[in-house]
Amino acid sequence: MTKLKIAVLGASGYTGADLIRLALLHPQMEIVALSGERKAGQAVDAVWPHFKAYPLPDLVTAESIDFSQVDAVFGCLPHATSQQIIRQIFEGPNPPKVIDLSADFRLRDPATYEQWYGNPHAALELQGEAVYGLTEHAREQLRSARLVACPGCYPTAALLALIPLLQNRLITPRNITINALSGVSGAGRSLKEANLFAEVAEAMHPYGLGHHRHMPEIEQELGKAAGEPLYISFTPHLVPINRGELETITVELTDGQSADSLREALAQRYADEPFVHVLPKGVAPATRMVRGSNHCVINVFPDRIPGRAIVVSAIDNLVKGSSGQAIQNFNVMFGLPETMGLEQAPLFP
Amino acid sequence: MTKLKIAVLGASGYTGADLIRLALLHPQMEIVALSGERKAGQAVDAVWPHFKAYPLPDLVTAESIDFSQVDAVFGCLPHATSQQIIRQIFEGPNPPKVIDLSADFRLRDPATYEQWYGNPHAALELQGEAVYGLTEHAREQLRSARLVACPGCYPTAALLALIPLLQNRLITPRNITINALSGVSGAGRSLKEANLFAEVAEAMHPYGLGHHRHMPEIEQELGKAAGEPLYISFTPHLVPINRGELETITVELTDGQSADSLREALAQRYADEPFVHVLPKGVAPATRMVRGSNHCVINVFPDRIPGRAIVVSAIDNLVKGSSGQAIQNFNVMFGLPETMGLEQAPLFP
Amino acid sequence: MTKLKIAVLGASGYTGADLIRLALLHPQMEIVALSGERKAGQAVDAVWPHFKAYPLPDLVTAESIDFSQVDAVFGCLPHATSQQIIRQIFEGPNPPKVIDLSADFRLRDPATYEQWYGNPHAALELQGEAVYGLTEHAREQLRSARLVACPGCYPTAALLALIPLLQNRLITPRNITINALSGVSGAGRSLKEANLFAEVAEAMHPYGLGHHRHMPEIEQELGKAAGEPLYISFTPHLVPINRGELETITVELTDGQSADSLREALAQRYADEPFVHVLPKGVAPATRMVRGSNHCVINVFPDRIPGRAIVVSAIDNLVKGSSGQAIQNFNVMFGLPETMGLEQAPLFP
Amino acid sequence: MTKLKIAVLGASGYTGADLIRLALLHPQMEIVALSGERKAGQAVDAVWPHFKAYPLPDLVTAESIDFSQVDAVFGCLPHATSQQIIRQIFEGPNPPKVIDLSADFRLRDPATYEQWYGNPHAALELQGEAVYGLTEHAREQLRSARLVACPGCYPTAALLALIPLLQNRLITPRNITINALSGVSGAGRSLKEANLFAEVAEAMHPYGLGHHRHMPEIEQELGKAAGEPLYISFTPHLVPINRGELETITVELTDGQSADSLREALAQRYADEPFVHVLPKGVAPATRMVRGSNHCVINVFPDRIPGRAIVVSAIDNLVKGSSGQAIQNFNVMFGLPETMGLEQAPLFP
Lengths: 349, 349, 349, 349
Hints:
homotetramer, seven-stranded mixed β-sheet, globular, 14 strands
């Protein structure tokens, strides 16, 4: 069987690198093009020495890629740039399917996009067409999609935990309070003082308080699940690890519900899912349970405040929160087994 | 002027070590005795090589100390053990003042103590007499106290931020939700698999969900401030750093209040405090601002959920959360300048 | 094709866990038994929560395993224990092949073993028979071996770099000075104060100065390559990372040699090796180039002292330094492609 | 008594920050000016939030400082820039004493300077006049110096360990091999991809192999001690910690010497030194013994190669390796007790 030809745009960032790592192990993927605007012309192992042992094409500009010869494009570009290149791809002949990891096609409402990202959207029809690719909740649409917007890392961990609870009215849409912790790879490879080792190590702090761009995305999808608009509280924190994302979420129970009933509902919902695991009662999710893998672990605990519960969810931000979920979507879009290329167990210690 | 003679009980734990570190710099303290039951007979630098350059007495058993020759005792022992030794100290001749860093004298209600700590209290009169030593809110009682119960590390960060808000009815006593992050030194030097480097590094997870022992302590003091009993939600997380504690707290505003009015109220309340600092609008507290020091930094942010705000508080768990506050209390108890021995600036990077 | 049935002895240590991780991805391996004496009876995910998503047999005692039904045994037990169990395995009916990761069968000379490990060897014939499994230098013997002693982690990094240089007389056997840095997973999961997070983090120190047990092993194999006995200088250091081993080795050049000629010789020797990579001139080996993978990266640099060079070698101590090399040996022993199950690219960041 | 007025040039780097931290605790120092070219006009706590609680002057340009009103200047500027500003300072009226932490005045030979730093020296007379400020070996000259060149961090750890051994002919000047490990703060606060958290964490690698700029400095001072020119082998490694420097040095013994005799000689030489400590036989120096302090710990071990020994030395690169030693020099230059302001014990954990 012929492998599917893929191109990775933005291969010089951490997300691009993790996509390459996973694609190298995928038996049906052939990497035919890698773009990196500022590093075009360089060999991959000049940018990513850890790929030295693997044959990979040199980095090129996105413009130089013949997309008509490609089956699928993974977009790991910054927002705003993404929408322009992806529009051009679809305007070309014989366009490939596009799995976009940027924020550009996640938000349904153009005004919301513009408000949070600061630029008017340049590909409105595509924005309307894109499938929001939280795999476990979007399989049917994914099968026929030509453009998939992969969820942000924070939204992935939150939505997997909360959507079933809202859909089944086990929790109210009020006062959902998400405290999130993230490793530093989520901030990307760009040169900012705040990301220097000596600033981050042996330290921690919240950021984006009250105005992080993943907020409207979470609200959009939770609102859909709840059947009504809602506001969430969301506070991310930077923690000195490379990979990992953990969300501790307090929720209000509807009548008759409890931490146990929520856990049971999630366990049933995800019983057949290969990547989402509800832990036994009392076991706290930890990022070390998922490091380097596409897994998500979830659990629910009683809150000391009556009528509430605490939901905890952990993923690897670069895998299930980004490149792994993108490949999971690719598998669905191309009719492959969903776990293909994603079978690796977590790396611990 | 003659220095005050101090003894440190439990000098082989991290809290004891940080107390020694600070005492060495205190111009009015002379360390005359250090106890460590299992390490009695050893030189301090066998247990703590970083003190090699400093002349310190060898470790002894607590029983072998002549407390009548000591001005102040710092208790860094585990709970249950603390109350027994401290009772004996006060039964002896010419007893010193005692600053206890354990949990034994923090809770007012014997039944609550027994429920959360599993043993009946063995020194009930002392429990009733002890002053809860959150320095900024207990100065008057501290001046005449002979027994001070230093707050736990998590309570310290939470109470400094919340007490003024509750006392002034700027927030409601409902739905106070505390998400806390702590460095690993808070878990002590005991041998547990969960505290091994390879388990903790490059990882993070919540623990004690719904049943951490600092809960009743926070509730007791917040209830006092609110004038009514209350329940809090409190979820601590283990983060791979040595020192530092950060709490991100969502609160419900009372009518007419806002993040700005809360910040302003805290700024006024702590304007003259040497160790509590309300940051300028928009600046997120970070543990790197306080590492190794007795400072606490606080700020308030608007929450996206209307009618709520986010309060953030950061301390060094071993200093303001433990040994530093103990010395601050010592200074008040002995009529010394409150900052004596605590002037060191944070260590960054 | 039927998979090969494997048993992992000592599955509750980090080495055992990494062997399971790799075996799960190996298309020709079926894990049929896992032993862990103190944790016998427990489910694997109670000991290793990161394997929750994978079906694995519960832990049992080694004695309870029917080794006649197993094709290969991986021994991840402590030294001394290993030799006893492995002798019993070979005394049983239809014994499997054994790949031992302990130190018990590495040393050829019983007296040397007893001197460094403190106990007389209990399986002398097996000690004589075992193949020292540095794969790239032992393939022929491995094909017919029934007992393989996998090299220690430090020896692996040193020997891959130095054997070709000594065999070809490019360096002298004198004054080989190995400075080694290791992550903490190498110390295992046992409860020692020295391995606690708060002791190790934000710190580093040498250990085993002048008497580390990997010394005689390195000397044995280097002596074989040099054709004469030799002494090495070897100083390992503990560094606060989970995985990774880096060795910086100064060597004396023989006449006419240079850093360039050494690099060229190594590049030629390893040109066709899938896991050993000589880097381009000037590129320093780094553990991030190999994390989580079976790769080794090597380079050579001029020393400022005339007549010497600096050889640098990096591996992941748990993979090429332990479980990965064990599986590589397994592949050779069973006639499988040598890279099977080991194709995963390094995990970075 | 009036305090001495000091200015810190380059106060926006990590070295400058640590100098401020220490100066704040120094009873005879008053910080009257802080320069930071690119951050001139900013408040200190905008650049260094951890100094929020301390009254400090805003950052200004170096040009705007009236040096005639200053008693001492600490130069924390990059090389080349340093020499120009310091020349101007000495050309002005009533010049202060200058303690320079850059590399500009460390090398005696202008040609060596130009070769290693790439620019001709712009203040040759000052270069000739400057005292090389390894305090323990330069006290007499320091007392009357007006310009002191503080040693680099790597040289400090190496020279303290080796100078007495060479001076007393206990080791030969041949084959001195220094393997050094350093925390990341030594790389400064400049924006380089190599210093990003995600690049450095959970990783380690050597750098500057064969051409690090601290080499000629170490050779100059060791050559002086040996009475003859010499070459050293020096390989620094980057380790994921903030602070700390550890050097493991193999040396050749002269006739009749041993590890024990070397340790004894060092112990005698440093017996009265407040900051240099020779550890008991068998105790390995560790950076956690000195973190945040001005101490240096040293020990000597037998090497397995006959006729050699291993010398290990540990410091905090920002304190004894930089700002602490600068203040120690300041104390000597102004006739103050040498430990003034440097009494703080190490911070552990």
